[in-house]
Amino acid sequence: MAVAAFAASACSSSPSTELSEQDAGAAVPTILATTGIWSDVVSNVACDGLADVETIIPVGGDPHGYEPSLQDRERMENAALVVANGLHLEEGLEDTLEAVKESGTPVFEFADGMDTIPYSFQGGHDDHDEEDAHDHDEEDGHDDHEEDAHDDHEEDAHDHDEEDAHDDHEEDAHDHDEEDAHDDHEEDAHDDHEEDAHDHDEEDAHDHDEEDAHDDHEEDGHDHDEEGDHAHSGDDPHVWFDPHRVSDALPELARALTAAAGLDPAAVDACVAGYQAELAAVDAEISAEVERLPAASRKLVTNHEALGYFADRYGFEVIGTVIPSPASMAQTSPAQLEALAELIEHEGVKALFAETVHSTDDVDALAARVGDVEVVTLYTGSLGPPGSGAENYIGFLRTNTELIVDALA
Q: What whole-number distance in Å separates Cα of residue 66 and Cα of residue 381?
């Protein structure tokens, strides 16, 4: 699809539904959204001026690294409702959001009610899978060793108990049949020892499993206190790259707007219906645009893992990321870049995707190393400026799709 044709419908996406005007001079509640993307979505659900919708993070700002000011805190406390993404996207805002919530301002998080997907943590090669395989092999070796040791111990203990039991029984139980007494005592001693050994092994296995589970959880769930990392369970917060998921979340947003901000439910429901129709239309447009690409060409290499939901929705594969971490502020390494360069050459990838909210230095260096590969900059965590074609959410989706498909076609 040509640029002009595809961008022609990327203008304002406000629903055309006509609603009765609010009484002149009536107080309009203020809704504060963390990003311009969510601000635009909220504006379409509170359409026709039902609310005054403002944004915390400015255009071009990275939601991963934005630090709030005292004025931001005051604005949030005075708002009727604060709308955030959730899943630790706005890491620098989390303490403020929690404090605002405790002070009485309702906070709605889009990702809370969504069907989310985990990060794949790719970066040239999958370090996470490699480490899991290593842990699995170690665990298997440990289990085999424990099993052999258990069998040897059981056999030795059995022989020892059998001999002791036999001697004791011959000495003390002369009136009984020696063979029966020997069998009975041997069975009791063996059972007691097996039960003790089994309990001991079960306890060791339980402790071992608990330790493994704890280690896996610590590795997969990023500690909030670690510098430059997210504090989440591994789910990708970039949910807005799937308009279908966003559409499904709108009724919950509508309920928050009517309950917290006092908006008219009938008016909000009409706005939701109109905007859901627009999102369904752009979803169909994106699917048709992607059909221009052969399945073998739908491979993405990105600056950091922001396109997981886009890939999930439209049949792409994210084969690598320059920054192999969910944190956009993390660092890459020459070894990781070299491994990713080899993967790009092997897969025949034609373009690498940078982001307007981050430096392109690492992506440019990777492209120079590979050669004959294009670097294309996408809008990811922020809308674009006026005239970019990405100044509202639907335009954002269309423009990014056009850039991706044109680069890979």
A: 11
Residue 48 to residue 255: CA distance in whole angstroms:
18
Torsion of CA 210, 213, 226, 357, to 10 degrees: -170
Listing DSSP states for 49-65 in one string gives TTSEEEESSPTT--TTT
Write out pLDDT tens, residues 78-94: 999 999 999 999 999 99
Write down the H helix ranges in 348-392: 361-370
For the stretch 399-408, pLDDT in tens is 999 999 999 9
Q: Take residue 212 and report the two structure tokens written for it.
A: 């493994």
Can you give the pLDDT at residue 121? 54
Q: Looking up tokens 């699917």, which residue turns up?
A: 287
Strand, coil or helix: 82? strand
Name the most confidently modeled range: 139-143, 204-208, 400-404: 400-404
Residues 352-364 pLDDT 10s: 999 999 999 999 9
Tokens for 239, please give them.
């949910």
End-to-end CA distance of the chain: 11
Q: What is the pLDDT of residues 42-71, one digit of tens each?
A: 999 999 999 999 999 999 999 999 999 999
Identify which of 214, 232, 249, 234 has the alpha carbon closest to the alpha carbon of residue 109: 249
Q: What is the pairing mode between strands 299-302 and 317-321?
A: parallel
Local structure of 71: helix, strand or coil: helix
Q: What pLDDT is recorded for position 389?
A: 98
Q: Is-contact 60 385, C-beta < 8 A? A: yes
State whether residue 228 is helix, strand or coil: coil
For residue 398, name the pLDDT band (cuts at 50, 70, 90): very high
What whole-number distance in Å separates Cα of residue 33 and Cα of residue 72?
Answer: 11
DSSP result, 268-325 = HHHHHHHHHHHHHHHHHHHHHHHTTS-GGG-EEEESSS--HHHHHHHT-EEEEESS-S
Closest residue by Cα to residue 233 from 84, 116, 313, 113: 116
